[in-house]
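[job 0412] stage=complex_fold ligand=acetyl coenzyme *A status=START
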Amino acid sequence: MAIKIMGTGSALPEKIMTNEDMTQLVDTSDAWIRERTGIGSRHISTGETVVSLAAQACRRALENAGREAAETELLLVATCTPERGIPCAACQVQSELGAARAVAFDLNAACAGFLFALHTAWAYIEAGIYRNALVVGSEVLSKIVDWTDRSTCVLFGDGAGAVWVERSERGGIRGFVQHSDGNKGAVLQCDSRELHNPFASVPSQTPYIQMDGREVFAFAVRQVPACIQEALEQAQMTVQDVDLYVLHQANKRIIEGIYKRLGAEPEKFPINLDRVGNMSSAAIPVLLDELNREGKLKEGMLLVLSGFGAGLTYGACVLEW
Ligand code: ACO
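[job 0412] stage=complex_fold status=DONE, emitting structure tokens
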């Protein structure tokens, strides 16, 4: 028996912010942003939350899979921008959905979060602990972006994507690898709350996203192809066997670097970051949902999903649709 994605859904905030809009805030230009990143616009929350976006994406994934919220046994939300420290976003989503049976918790592995959550769901189902899972990536990164820093504020967008996973007779996940490199944490970071108690008061060093863009670029272009190769070997597949590579949408030039290093055809790497920017853990499930709804995912197709980000964290999954 395989474990398979049986439904997808996504939700984006209504407000679209173009590169032109960005020039009103910081010293930048549409040409610079497009050339260096491939991004043209992104969706930005005007009140939508990690929970409301995640719940909407879940409803759409459930409908797409032909399932009811009440059937959900495991509900995982990958996010690095939850509204609350407690309760976790997954429990709030559970309440909004009425998924009363589900065990719900969050997982934070930044831009690799959705992939790590999918692997977690796979392990629980494979072990026979739960029969199905809703796996979500949801972010409101606009809360932690420094809107005065042109080198980062142009990159990110808000949104959520979700998948329904269960056992299936055919297809499904064939290989999975995950890696973490905590020694490189300073490359991309953002503090949460400051320490403030009767004995100490330590302000946050980095209350907003801080990034060494060149280091992130070098890491992604070097490690992601190696990690994809590792997952393909595990699945006993080659780069040429793959029909589509659904990669984390950080930057068009990173994706170009990855397909060149892999020796894969560029047309196998769908891109939506031109419209949505970098949505961290939401990037992969939103792109997957768009491809699914456009009818571009056919039964039997071989897909590679790969996420990479702060931590550093990175991973890849090989699956048959
Ligand atoms: N508009 C205009 N100029 C800018 C902007 C901007 N938005 N941002 C930076 N610049 C300027 C810099 O100030 C610098 O000017 P200077 O030469 O006068 O000092 C110049 O452009 C070059 O800056 P660099 O940082 O060297 O530009 P680079 O070519 O490296 O591009 C970028 C920056 C796009 C961030 C690149 O490093 C990159 O793509 N890195 C990957 C980071 C990424 O995608 N992170 C996403 C989050 S992590 C993840 O999801 C995995």
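The mean pLDDT is 96.
[job 0412] exit 0
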